[in-house]
Amino acid sequence: MILRTTTPETPSTSFRLMHVAGTGTLTLERLTLKGGYLYTSGGGGIANRGTLTITSSTLRDNSAYRSNGGIGNSGTLTITNSTLSGNNAVTAAGGGGIGNSSTLTLTNSTLSDNWSFNSFVDRGSAGGGIDNSGTLTITSSTLSGNWAYSSVSGLELQNTILARNTLEGPGGPESDCSGPVTSLGTNLIGDPAGCTITLQESDLTGDPGSLNLSGFVAGRSGQSM
């Protein structure tokens, strides 16, 4: 485990846990990163500008005053069999869990209970789990319990649960996402009202904690399953 010592989160105690430079390559496996805090820029846990691979690891309780509490990615980021939970971004644009402006691939992983509060709305968007302005592919993963004041997302989903997130901006407060989303099938999306999405035959929508789910079959939406 890499753990930042417990101190008040002030500008003078700002400490990012890891930084991957543009020419750098880093692989993290079976590691926990906790408690990173950055005041002046994004990426409280990790800032990646190079090539970063995270496998079977956990990032939790990391924070950034500006943006991207868990990870700020402007390089190539691959996350597999991992968890990001309890990370947050406080005042400006960016994601509570991850802010991605380049290439992010998320597989068999969970993002839960991350949050982003964009108190300066004119400075851009904010995504509770992920704020994406790059290329994002999510496969066999779960995004649930994340919260954002506002959000813009553009992503590909396959075999993924996207439900019980809270969005206070466009499409909210019940919607689980906003912006363009491409479904590759076999997803469960709690409330896609804020998304621009074409549901596939194998997709379901509705509360995953109930039996009140709907499917999209042969061009007809709203069919009970």
In a few lines, what is going on in this structure?
With 225 residues, this protein is mostly beta strands. The protein has strands at 2-3, 18-20, 25-29, 32-34, 37-38, 46-48, 51-55, 58-60, 63-64, 71-73, 76-80, 83-85, 88-89, 94-95, 98-100, 103-107, 110-112, 115-116, 126-127, 130-132, 135-139, 142-144, 147-148, 155-158, 161-163, 166-167, 179-183, 188-189, 195-196, 204-206, 213-217, 220-224. It has one domain.
Overview of this structure, please?
The chain has strands spanning 2-3, 18-20, 25-29, 32-34, 37-38, 46-48, 51-55, 58-60, 63-64, 71-73, 76-80, 83-85, 88-89, 94-95, 98-100, 103-107, 110-112, 115-116, 126-127, 130-132, 135-139, 142-144, 147-148, 155-158, 161-163, 166-167, 179-183, 188-189, 195-196, 204-206, 213-217, 220-224. It has one domain. The chain is built from no helices and 32 strands. The termini are far apart. It has an eleven-stranded mixed β-sheet with strand order 1-4-8-12-17-22-25-28-30-31-32, with no helix packed on it. Strands 3-7-11-16-21-24-27-29 form an eight-stranded parallel β-sheet, with no helix packed on it. It is an all-beta fold and 225 residues long. Helix content is 0%, strand content 45%.
